[in-house]
Design goal:
By secondary structure, this protein is of the alpha+beta class. The chain contains nine helices and 17 strands.
Length: about 325
Amino acid sequence: MTIGSKLTRRSAIATLGAGAATAAIGPDMAGTFSPALANTTPASKQAPGFYRQKVGDMEVTMITDGARTMTMPENFVRNIPRDEAGKALEAAYMSASSMTVPYNPVIVKTGGKIVLIDTGNGQGDRKGEVGHLLPNMAAAGIDPKQIDMVVLTHFHGDHINGLRLADGSLAFPNAEVKAPAAEYAFWMSDENLAKAPDAMKGAFNNVRRVFKDLGDRVVRYEMDKEVASGITPFATHGHTPGHSSLALQSGNARLLIQGDVTNIPSLFLRNPGWHVMFDMDAARAEETRRRFYDRASADKVLVGGFHFPFPALGYVEKDGANNFRLVPTMWNSTL
């Protein structure tokens, strides 16, 4: 078309068609143009999952270990009918009968050290849903041999199994392991193992499998004392007897790593009075949730959740008198 010519419907379609054809042509190595060949093979898995966030001078990297989709057990929420929990899942755009649970360890560079918080599920998942910590660390440029310290929030398998590789060797061979003193004392007690119900004996035996031969490599930490520069544990008991969360602070910047204060946030953060089947002391866990989220919402502090949707960072707001809601952070391409 020349300047001033009349734009008709036919000429507009022709012009758009020419533009589309041009868009499908790209420069080849010689600088000339040839039709681009699209890769039409469907992808079979996600891209590597890691996300970095600055907290003052700290560099925090959220690493996804994957996510499991499963049928919701009948008693997953102990103190409400299953169909009510199903409606909450549907409100979060999941199926009323099934749910997806993410797993998100955290790596912190602080004070010249590289610290891993919780280790994920470990290797050997037959479905390939979880066990992605090590490949995602590699994608983020972090070698397991570089980990100076592993800090554990509690001893459930999805938090400790990643300490070992599938062959039983240590996944982080140069790391000191720090664990809550009360948690270690509970799970390593032969008396507690002997009186535990059969359903819990597997968890006790798994702790012994993971920690065997570690000896002095495991340092038991107390609450409210730094375990690494700017990283301070505080008690969030109830989910397990010694469950801890971690406060990260650098200058005026803060981040709370909540461990398992809540499981699926659309259920248990939204409704802190709901009791997940994994909470060993349900009443205390509820009290902890309410206290934790009251603090997080009042202080408007960033929260990292092991079971939050990846990249597992967000703010917590009051939603009515007794409930809360999670406001995920915006993805940022710069630090």
